[in-house]
Sequence to fold (350 residues):
Amino acid sequence: MTYSVAVSGASGYAGGEILRLLASHPDIEIRTVTAHSNAGQPLVQHQPHLRSLAHLTLQDTTPETLAGHDIVFLALPHGQSGQYTDALGDTPLVIDAGADHRLTSQASWDAFYGGHFHEPWAYGVPELLVGGVKQRETLRGATRIAAPGCNASTVSLSLAPGVAAGVIDAGDIVSVLAVGPSGAGKSLKTNLLASEILGSANPYAVGGTHRHIPEIRQALAAAAGAPADGIRISFTPVLVPMSRGILATSTAPIAGDVSDAEIRAAWEDAYGDETFVQLLPAGEFPRTADVLGANTALIGLAIDRAANRVTVVTAVDNLVKGTAGAAVQSMNLALGLPESRALSVNGVAP
Fold:
C-alpha cells in the first residue's frame, strides 16, 4: 500500500529533513508540501538538495490543504500546530514535530510555553523505557504522534536506562549540551548569524529556562515509574559552530552500593538489541561527526568512582534522530511497517 503524505513547514529545516527521508521511502507518496510566507514558490527554491521533489510547489498551510491525506506531518514553530491538529480529525495519522502535543502537564506547558494547552499524544521515541517496556509498544498502531524535542530525547535516551534500573540518582542530574544552530530553525536571528557563532561557543537558556526541561523530566519520570517531582536536572545548552548535531554530556550520582558491572549492564540491557541507539565499548565515546545524516544515537558510558557519578556522552544528528528520523521511525511503527524503513545507521564522513 502507498500512503499519501502532506508536510507542513516544508521550507524549514525540520520539514526539509522529513521530506529527505520520506523521498526514499517505498511506501510513501509525497503529494503536498505547505508553507506560510513561502507559499507559491517551488520547493527546491528553499530545499535545493531535494532534487527528486523538484516538481512540488509550496502551498498555503491551511486545514483544507492538509486534509485528504493518509498522513500529515506538521513541522511548525511551537504553539502553531494545535490550530491544525484540531481540524484534522479525519486524517488517519498525524505527526507533530512541534511541542504542542508533547507534555502531559498543563502546568509545565504554561510555565515553559504558554498559550493554549493541547492533549498529549504518543511520544515518538521508540527506544525510550516506559515502566519496564519500550515506548514503541505505544506507537504501534498510533494515530497521533508527538515527535520529540531533539535535546530532550538525547538526554532522556542517555539516562533512562540508569533511572529505570535504579543505579543512578535522578535527583541530581547535570547535562551540558553542545548543539548546532539548525535546531533553532531557519528564521533569521542575530545570534545565529555566521559572524556571531563562528569561532565561538555561546550558552543559552541558562539557569533552568530551556523549554525541553519539562519534556526530559516527564520522560525520565516515566522510565522510573515515579512522579516527575523526583527528577531534578540542571540543563545547559551551548551553541557551537556546526550546522547540525548534539553532543550531550550528562552526569548523575551513583545510587546505593552497585558495582560497575551492574551500572553498565543497565545500558547494555536497555539498548543491546536496538538498531538506532548503540552503547559503545567501555572507554569509547562518540563524536557528532559519526552520526551526521544518520538516525543513530551513539552512547559512551564512564563510571567516575572518585566523584561517585556516572557520565554519559551521547551524540545525535539533531535533524535526524533528534527530529525527522524519530518521526519517520514512529510513523513506520504506527503503520505496521519495518521500523528501520528509509532510515540509516550510517553517517556521512568526512
Residues 194 and 241 are 8 Å apart (CA to CA). The first strand starts at residue 3 and ends at 8. The mean pLDDT is 96.
